[in-house]
Amino acid sequence: MPHFIYIPFLFAIGACVGSFLNVVVYRLPRGMSLVRPPSRCPECETPLAWYDNVPVFGWIFLRGKCRYCRKPISPRYPIVEAVTGCLFVFYYVMFFILHIGPTGEMNWPIYGLYMMLISGLLAASLIDAELFIIPAAIPWWIAAVGIVVHGVADQPGSAGSLMEWPSALALCGGSAIGLAISMALLQLRILPLSFPTGDLLEMERAELEEKAKKAADAGEEGPDVPPEFTAAEVRREIRKEMLFLMPPLVLGGASVLLYLHAPAVWQMWHAAARIDWLNAGMGALLGSLVGAFVVWLTRILGSYVMGKEAMGLGDMHLMFGIGAVLGGSAATITFFIAPFAAIAVGIYLLIAHSRRQLPFGPYLSLAAGFVMLFYAPIAAYLQPGLQAMISLIRQMLPGA
């Protein structure tokens, strides 16, 4: 079909997804069901008729007010719906018309997967910007769907394919087993939970203290500000996370060594690599592990050096989902581009004379949306340096 038919259709689909994202953003961090009760006015709680709930246009026809109580309805709802619809159209134009994006001919399953990632990142960013939290359910669902879709849709050389070399699959297999062991030990309380009483990032603490001060000035009861962890306590809690990471790191390294020096293991992983669905699914899983590890390593090193929690675990979960969809290399580039997105937004806020601070999650989301389009030229630019690094590794590890 011609593009002028696809574009309004995809906008409508995106706007409907945006309507659902509004539900997710409001209900998920508050522990409410995403299904029940159906959409209703936030003031009088009267259920909305279907014609009042049409994305974007329903709010316009109602002139931004509830049909029943006439109280104003936040313009955020139609804005999120319209933005989501425009994003669906924007990436369609970039992928299918301008052919900017992953190498190879774009296909609908990968387009749909990428739009699911964009939608999840938008919801996570809105929640993070408002409440300074990223519900783990969003990136974990993204990761699960990413692994399944890549396993079903990927073919050698297809757009967005995450199929890997046998050595990478060996690393993935050992690390995944190690992660499962760590999670089981954590559930059995054999491994200790870090920051069991919770800790606040510096930005979160500043915002909570500001709310408490405003409440005190107004003579009202404000939120409780928990005591700040000392540097020694932060390092003690970070050591618990280092302990959690040991099984994935040790078993991942051991799996690679077996691949290099045990012929039977070498043959096993080469046979697995020839099974397209298994290769692609494990490639997506490896991407999620790499994405999470990049953030976690930064969190551990930064926290241990500074004596303050450097990054939140929500950012690690977010990168887990990004890696499962875009792959480990793209997720790593996303992490290093995110500070430039922060600089750009910071300049805009400075020009706009805004004191609004944002956590790191929205910047990771902006960077992921950028890398989704421009990963191929970025990777080509970095390729000579990566080849030199690989040559060095091969010299250090004969047979790699």
Describe this structure in words.
There is one protein chain. With 400 residues, the protein is mainly alpha-helical. The protein has 2 domains: 1-111, no CATH class; 132-396, no CATH class. The protein has helices at 3-27, 57-61, 76-97, 108-131, 137-153, 166-187, 202-217, 231-261, 263-273, 276-306, 313-326, 328-351, 361-396. The radius of gyration is 23 Å and the shape is globular. The termini are far apart.
Q: What's the main sheet like?
A: none
Identify the quaternary structure here. single chain
Work out the helicity level.
55-70%
Number of helices in the DSSP assignment: 13
Ends: how far apart?
Answer: 48 Å
Cα gyration radius (Å): 23 Å
Q: In the residues, how many domains can be counted?
A: 2
Q: What is the H-and-E element order?
A: HHHHHHHHHHHHH
Percentage beta strand? under 5%
Kindly report the average pLDDT value.
88
How many β-strand runs?
0
Structural class: mainly alpha
Q: Low-confidence segments, ≥5 residues, pLDDT <50?
A: none
Give me some keywords for this one.
single chain; mainly alpha
Describe, in short, the structure shown.
With 400 residues, this protein is an all-alpha fold.
Which helices and strands, and how do they pair?
Layout: H1 3-27, H2 57-61, H3 76-97, H4 108-131, H5 137-153, H6 166-187, H7 202-217, H8 231-261, H9 263-273, H10 276-306, H11 313-326, H12 328-351, H13 361-396
Helix pairs in contact: 1-3, 1-4, 3-4, 4-5, 4-11, 4-13, 5-10, 5-11, 6-8, 6-9, 6-10, 8-9, 8-10, 10-11, 10-12, 11-12, 11-13, 12-13
